[in-house]
Every structure is written in structure tokens, then in C-alpha cells.
Fold:
Amino acid sequence: MMTLARAIDVSRSYGSVLALDHVDLDVHAGELVGLLGPNGAGKSTLVNLLTGVRRPTGGRVELCGGDPRDPATRKVLGVTPQETGLPSALRVGEVVDFVRAHYPDPLGRDELLDRFGLGDLVRRQTGGLSGGQKRRVAVALAFVGRPRIVFLDEPTTGLDVAARHALWNGVRQFHAEGGTVVLTSHYLEEVEALASRVVVVGEGRVLADDSVAAVRGLVAIRRVSLTTAVPVPDLPGVVGTERDGDRTHLLTPDADRLVRDLVSGDVPFRDLEVRPTSLEEAFLTLTAA
Amino acid sequence: MSSLALTHARFQLIETLRMPMALIGSAFFPAASMIFFVVPFIGSNPLYATTATASMVTFVVMSSNLFQYGIGVAEDRAQPWDPYARTLPAGAAPRFLGRILAGLTLMILSLIPVVVIAAVATKATVTPGQFVAALGVTVLSAVPFTLMGLAIGYSLPTKAAVVLAQVLFLPLAFGGGLMTGPGNAPGFIETIAPYLPTGAAVRLMWAAVGDFPVQPASVAALLAWTVAFAGVAGWAYRRDEGRRFS
Structure:
């Protein structure tokens, strides 16, 4: 299987801050990889290195076997950056034409806009679009050059549910036609909806690289809260414990089992509450482990 | 020159012309100065009208390049569009060339009213040879002011660049003697003007359209300014690329 994007022992620091710490990653042709991690985990830095915007401090990156900082290598690349920033005085159609001019065999302007449901915006100046519309234009631009691989950095930030699903369909269609996608997100839901492989990034390192199901088991941590007068005994599957007055919070990937264990262990408790944790909380337990 | 540079120039011009305040800023003031000061007071004197027009042309060359590059580049650097454009399969050259082409086009657009007013409403006159010589001086003297603007735009954030461009532009105009005829500026300005970039450029312009003598020391000063601005612009460009994209 051909490797389209590769990071080999890559590090990147900004001054004294280490954003990426000896990361290895291979993305093969036809994959749809989700980079999942909390804010500040290093996802965007990894994308910036692989798309040639920045240079690694250590290690090496490759795009289709070449250096992504070489313009010729980037003919097969499409990118949606985290920040949109379209030139506000230009019309949507003009922005598309501007990007098209950079590629040898671009998609037609109308074909592209129709694929992403943006056909009626073609004459609008980008400065007058809503945040969601700008975002959809920015995502569509990644596909202008008939890329082999696209990098979408938090593509659906700020989109409502309908727009998000429309966008997901566009990405799925590209993938179904053989395209390769690297998508960053800090929503597990988004990665689950699209990706088959998930790379979990936290504190500049790859914490897990596995199937969606396996990673969900790692990061889908539940918070089981209860009020009890006695100390809670050590129970299997508990990855973290916090006490807040007489309230005890237990973090576990398997809340059902924990509750059964509490009951069968005759632990006196009241006000039982089970909540999903945020990805940030899940990462705290992952990085602490 | 690649067609991609022309594409960049075209879209940059579209952007500027959609917000014509920018163009009015560089085209209106010199045209208004021609109408309110040159035409009524010295328009009937061929010699004065011609040198005043030459001064105003130099003024446009200075101000349009200083503002367009100084402020335009600083603004672009602040936009997330810039790093996105770097993921497209083109190096930095087409964008840079496109910017220069668009800048020269807007400078010429700003010059047209000055030249038309001079031709229609004053007795200013040049021979075809003098016109070509003045055109040559215009293009050559655009180089130091372009580099000066780029030096400001690449080394400062937007707000600081706006202030510096505005702070520089009046002293450069008065100090170079653009607002007064040859030999009529206050004494100390007559002394320093030949060595300021504006003063040196306008002296070449006066020499192109009349019998004002070319001063070798002044030409040398303009060359020195050009080299210095190129040095600062190059340094600021590399530093900026290194800071944002390394």
C-alpha cells in the first residue's frame, strides 16, 4: 500500500514550547484518518508540517515521497486550514478561480460549488458570508485541484448540524472515489462518523493509533459520581478518582460494570450520577496512565 | 514572468478596486493639489507648471508605493489567507511578483489624473523625448520607494506600519522639496533635499523634463538609499518568513 504522508521521528518546538515530541505517522493511500486530541495537543502543528507550511525542528516529513515544502509535491494536496480567512473583497467564484489557477487539472468551478451545495453563493463577496458559509467554502477549496490527499483541520468548527452532515457527505464521497483524508477534530463524534482509523494526539505525542472502536474504549471515559460516607474500595476498571467534599467522582471506561461492582460490594451510596466526560478529561487519564 | 504572477496581480487589483478608498488616497491628493495649487497659481507659466507636475509625479511615486506596500503587506501578513496560500502548489515568487505588478499598475492609475490635468489645464509642456525620459525616471524611482514600503510592511504589524508610513510621508515630501519649485525651498531644505530619496528622485525628474542639471552626488545618494532599503526589505522578508513559516 502506498504511503502518501509520512512523519518520521518528527519534533517541532516554538521557542521553549515543545508542540510535537518524536512523532511517527504513516498515512496510506485510500485511508480516512482522524487525528483526535484536545486543543493544544499538536494536531495543527502536525498538519502544518505535513502540508509544508512549517518545517520540523527534528525528524523528517514526506508527502507522496517528496518534500511538502517543494511546490511540485503539493500538486496532489488539498488543505483546509483551521482559520478560514478568505479575502473579503473577492466573490466566492473568484476565490475558487484563484485557487484553480494553481493546479494543472482543477475541477470546474460550478462542479466544485455544486458538490458542496454552494452554487448559489458564487456571486457573493466572501466578507458578507456567515461563518458557516465561509467554513464550507474553505473546505470546498481543499478539493479544487483533484487532490490525492486532503488535510482538513477542524473542518466543521462553527457549523450547524445540517451543514456538518452535508460536509461529511462531501468528504465521504471523495473518500469513496479513492481519495485519502486526514482530518483533525476534538469531537469524538466527528471522527467516529468519518474515520476508520484514529490517531490520538496529546501533549505532542501519539497516544494511540487504532480502529475507531478501540480508541472509543480508550477515550470514552464515564464519570460516575456518588455521595458516600465511607471510602470507596479499589474497584477494577477505575482509571481515576477525585473527591469533592463528601462527593466522589470515579472515572471509568465501563460505567455499567462499576455500578454493578458498587452494588455487589455493598458500598453505601446515594445520588448516583453517570455522565460522559469531555475529551479533555479523557486525555488527562490517558496521559497520566 | 509566469501567468500565475499575473493571476495574483489580477486578484490583488480586483480586491483594491472593490475598496476604492485606497486608490482615492493615492490618486486624489495629488490630483487635488494640481487643481487647487498648480493650475491657478503657476499654470500659465510653462516652466513652473512643468516642474510642478514633475514634483507631483514624484510625490505619487513615493506615496502610492509607500502606502500600498507598507500597509498592504502588513495587512496581508495578519490574514490567515497567507499561510493557506502557501499550501497551494506555487512558491513565494508568483505572489511577490503579483504584488509588485499590482502596485505598479495602481501607481500608474494614480499618475494619470496628474498628467492629464497638467496637459489640459496648464501650460506644462514636454517634448516626446522628455516624456520618455520622465517615464524612465518614474519607473526607476519607483524601485527605492517600493523597497521602502516592503521594508515597512514586512518588519512591522499593521497598526505600526500605518503610523510609520504616515509619519514618513510628509517630511519626505517637504524635505525633498516636492512642495516647492527648484531652488525655492527654505534654505536648510535646499541643503538636505538632494540627499533624501524624494529630493534625489525629483531632481532626476526635473532634469528629465527641463534643463535642471543632474547632480552626481544626489544620484549616488538615491542609489545608496535603494541599496539600504533593499537590505532592510530583504532582511525583514526573511525574518518574517522564518518567524511565521519555519
